[in-house]
Amino acid sequence: xxxxxxxxxxxxxxxxxxxxxxxxxxxxxxxxxxxxxxxxxxxxxxxxxxxxxxxxxxxxxxxxxxxxxxxxxxxxxxxxxxxxxxxxxxxxxxxxxxxxxxxxxxxxxxxxxxxxxxxxxxxxxxxxxxxxxxxxxxxxxxxxxxxxxxxxxxxxxxxxxxxxxxxxxxxxxxxxxxxxxxxxxxxxxxxxxxxxxxxxxxxxxxxxxxxxxxxxxxxxxxxxxxxxxxxxxxxxxxxxxxxxxxxxxxxxxxxxxxxxxxxxxxxx
Length: 268
Description:
- The chain has helices spanning 2-22, 66-69, 119-130, 169-175, 230-267; strands at 56-62, 76-77, 92-93, 96-97, 103-106, 110-113, 138-143, 147-152, 158-161, 183-194, 197-203, 223-228.
- By secondary structure, it is α+β, with helices and mostly antiparallel strands.
- A 5-stranded mixed sheet has the order 9-8-12-10-11.
- Strand 5 (103-106) and strand 6 (110-113) form a beta hairpin.
- The chain is flat.
């Protein structure tokens, strides 16, 4: 009877180990594990980063004759951006801050609506206006305050800054050292604020369908949150309970010590 129970226990352990090896909780895109190669889906629609209020833009206007476009640029100053107001840097072009209504004020050209436009659209609009007085102008527009907050079960929660126009949720997680072993790969949330309304979307990194999501590429000031798994939650509760117990014991010991000191003092 004992030998049969032993054999059954060994078989159960073997089955569990096989199951755990097949079901890797730390893997991404699990349906791809049995494929050698293939084609991944493209994100839905054409991704375009659009300017929002409080964005910080660098706009440079140039041409073959630099003097012809000098009046269309902000003067060189130090500091140049809001992020380094107290940092000594080499003089460079100032930035434009998009106001709450979505406008910026350009030299010579005046007030321009930029909210909801891509950097390419803004550059084309400025180019068209400058071309009325300058031959073959070249305009470049860049967003310099593109930041994403990454929190939850990642190895290094932080605010991630980038100068890239296309920055995905995978890029953000990579910048933070990837998910921890306690992060739920099927519960990665992207929280987004647009036109004063806050929305969220859950991404499943176990599936390659994540590439189809309109939230796969991030926008300015998005928040990426990775939900902890049950083990992390249980550990947290255990640690909290232990901390509470230690606090109670410490309080009792301190109280007993005080009482004992009083008794000794009174009985002398």
